[in-house]
Amino acid sequence: MSADIATAVASIRLGLHALRENALGDTADHEDQAAVLQALYDDRDQSGSVLGMISDLLTDIGVRIDDQGGEDITEVIDEAAAYVQDSAGLRLERARAALIALGAA
Questions:
Q1: Is 10 strand, coil or helix?
Q2: 38, 54 in Cβ contact below 8 A?
Q3: SS3 sequence, 8-62?
Q4: How far apart are CA 30 and CA 43, in angstroms?
Q5: Most buried residue among 61, 74, 75, 105 by CB atoms closer than 10 A?
Q6: The pLDDT of residue 4 is above 80
Q7: Dihedrals phi, psi of 25, to nearest 5 degrees
Q8: How many angstroms separate the CA atoms of 86 and 23, rounded?
Q9: Number of C-alpha atoms within 13 angstroms, CB side, residue 62?
C-alpha cells in the first residue's frame, strides 16, 4: 500500500472515530445518532454524505477500469456502488427517520 493510500485510510479512520464518538459518547442521544446517520447517508445531499462519496469513488474507479478494457470488472464495481448508495443508504435513511420520530415521542 502506498503512503498516500495509508494516509487516506488513516484520515478516514480518524473521521469515523469522530462520528462514533458523536453517536456513542456518554451524552449522545437520538438526535446525535440521527445526525451521524445523516452524515453517513443524506438523501437530500447524497454526494455530500460518506456513503455517497464512497459510491461516487467506486463509480469513478469503474469508469477508469472500463476505459482500460475491463468491462466485466466495471459491471461488478457499478453494482457495488449502487448497493452502497441504494441499499445501505436507504436503510440508514429509514433508521434516521425512525430515530427522529422516537426522539420526538
A1: helix
A2: no
A3: HHHHHHHHHHHHHHHHHCCCCCHHHHHHHHHHHCCCCCHHHCHHHHHHHHHHHHH
A4: 19
A5: 74
A6: yes
A7: -60, 165
A8: 23
A9: 18
How many CA atoms, within 13 angstroms, populate the side-chain half-sphere of residue 91? Answer: 5
The position carrying cell 447524497 is 46
Residue at 9: amino acid letter: V
pLDDT tens track for 58-102: 999 999 999 999 899 999 999 999 999 889 988 999 999 999 998
Mean pLDDT across the chain: 92
What's phi and psi for 12, nearest 5 deg?
-65, -45
Grid cell listed for 75: 459491471
Residue identified by cell 463509480 is 59
Q: What is the Cα–Cα distance from 50 to 87, expressed in whole angstroms?
A: 14
Q: Which three cell numbers stand for residue 96?
A: 434516521
